[in-house]
Write a structure and sequence with these properties.
mainly alpha, about 150 residues, disordered N terminus, about 0% strand
């Protein structure tokens, strides 16, 4: 769902980052937090008990098996998340609007600063030009006065 003229598929980027964050997540602490959470219903209590069993079994595994188990869980979670995200369309129009607004605000400030800088340069350039012309005019007048004195 690309916004007209955006050149960036924000929905795709968000989905990829979500999947990537699951791949990089600390699975053990995530499972432990799920176990430590208070059950909201009978179903969540059952899931909590299963997770406790999985964690107890995990603690009995050897190091290489633990690594394999964590990689397997991480890959399974990221693939399930990716599949669910592909099924559910995201409406990011408000986010895109906010980003566009923020960028435009920054561009307006930058343009205003540029105009102010340009005006300052023009003002001081004009003053310098006027000063140089004034000095030339005074030199010319001095020259004329000297020439007139020489002629007399």
């Amino acid at each position: 769902m690309e916004a007209p003229g955006s050149g960036l598929n924000l929905e795709k980027v968000v989905k990829e980052q979500l999947v990537e964050s699951v791949k990089n997540a600390d699975i053990l602490s995530m499972l432990q937090r799920m176990v430590d959470s208070a059950p909201e219903s009978e179903e969540t209590d059952e899931i909590r008990q299963r997770l406790q069993e999985i964690l107890a079994h995990y603690n009995t595994l050897e190091e290489n098996e633990k690594t394999y188990f964590l990689d397997y869980i991480r890959n399974a979670l990221s693939s399930k998340l990716a599949a669910k995200l592909d099924e559910v369309p995201m409406d990011l129009t408000e986010l895109e609007g906010a980003i566009h607004g923020a960028i435009m605000t920054q561009m307006y400030w930058l343009a205003a600063a540029g105009v102010i800088l340009l005006l300052l340069l023009v003002f001081f350039g004009y003053k310098l030009y006027k000063s140089i012309k004034e000095k030339e005019k005074k030199r010319e007048e001095k020259k004329k006065l000297k020439q007139m004195k020489k002629k007399k």
